[in-house]
Amino acid sequence: MDNRPIGFLDSGVGGLTVARELMRQLPHEEIVYIGDSARAPYGPRSAEQIRSFTWELVNFLLTKNVKMIVFACNTATAVAWEEVKEKLDIPVLGVILPGASAAIKATRNGKIGVLGTPMTIQSDIYRHKIQALSPETEIENLACPKFVPLVESNNYKSSLAKKVVYETLRPLVGKVDTLVLGCTHYPLLRPIIQNVMGQNVKLIDSGAECARDISVLLNYFEINRSRTAEPLKHTFYTTASPMAFREIAEDWLAMDLIVEHVTL
Amino acid sequence: MDNRPIGFLDSGVGGLTVARELMRQLPHEEIVYIGDSARAPYGPRSAEQIRSFTWELVNFLLTKNVKMIVFACNTATAVAWEEVKEKLDIPVLGVILPGASAAIKATRNGKIGVLGTPMTIQSDIYRHKIQALSPETEIENLACPKFVPLVESNNYKSSLAKKVVYETLRPLVGKVDTLVLGCTHYPLLRPIIQNVMGQNVKLIDSGAECARDISVLLNYFEINRSRTAEPLKHTFYTTASPMAFREIAEDWLAMDLIVEHVTL
Questions:
Q1: Which of A2, A91, B43, B123 is the 20 to 30 Å CA partner of A77?
Q2: Residues on chain A touching B228 (C-beta within 8 angstroms)
Q3: A98 three-state secondary structure
Q4: Rounded distance, CA A221 to CA A219, Å?
Q5: CATH code at A6-94+208-261
Q6: Fold annotation for B6-95+210-261
């Protein structure tokens, strides 16, 4: 048993989709979350900059005495997961491998679409991971640079969102039977994405898949939190405005939250 | 990527229920299996003897250059999993934690039954693991010493099996809503067990749960087998008669098998 919290990092609010899944699947685990909204989106930045920002988030979480770190951000996972995992002596989990595995299991026709930030798509990491396991699978990559700003500005239910998603995804419609939401912000746009792609396309939420993996790793490393531990006190940190963060987070998580500002 | 096989150990043929799940979920992974049928059942033996036998099985698998070892045996997991996991530098997975977690998720009324061998029940390990995570859960333990011999003697579909299962489980009927098959041999008796307990009781197959965890750990440690690797060649070893082993294994796995005798 290990009653310390699990640390989540993201470029902004997207990782809340992973945190929500974790709270649903493992309601007795405590969360410390850091979202770097002040510097979001990470997607268009250089690998060097993303690596450096990610280490700042990791080091912040380490000061909070976390027992595990979840990269609830595809871009950070693509750039820095392997390096951080190797350096730390606590488990470090990324969202890409769980998402890639789930997509391979889901596809029937072997044609998988991947949506991601410019950096995630440029890294071509989903193709790399999926084809290493399943070489015959065809990948259609699509960068969606406008999606994260829509979510971070709390416009993910707007008519603008519908228009942007429709225009962005049009080239993919009818081409794949499985679509990886390869950015943790995108599940907030899920109803619109599903509508544009059609009800028969299976959407893979990399964050939800990752939450199931967290449960397995907590078991494997024997670091579950005891249900007799102190009452839960999730804490959320943002590098930008706590008020803006709280608005999205309370909508998404349907609970009152403690959100604190932090400067890295 | 790591194209080496996954090693499975069991006191006999029970671990085949885990191997079958693995083949279904991860058809591209290769298996080396060792069943100690000559010394089955392990359940009534002393902890010291079980520990010693388990190490013999582990050392045998290590000579087969495995990348991971699965304790496809609850009794061996109860006695020696933590010790072996600590000593080896490859991942070692047991069946108890995956089964315990699944049972906690499945129960609605907080009353979980656990079937196991005398040693597994005596160790009280399911109660220990389940209540550490969920203290309010009530556990009804039941040792089923006659079940493994029924399976090892290929009598698991007989009218004798129906009689034995009925008489053994009678004290549990109506008392729990979830029942852990806390021995990998028991899924071969599943239809009879379900029939005796009633269709509303959720049966937890610790081996099937474990197979899902294997997939997560292969991802986490980045040791999946490439689908471009050499054709699969599963190998099964038994310390008793290969013919008797093959009969059960081919019935259960519905495939032709290479079964070799080995002396430990």
A1: A2
A2: 135
A3: helix
A4: 6
A5: 3.40.50.1860
A6: Rossmann fold (3.40.50)
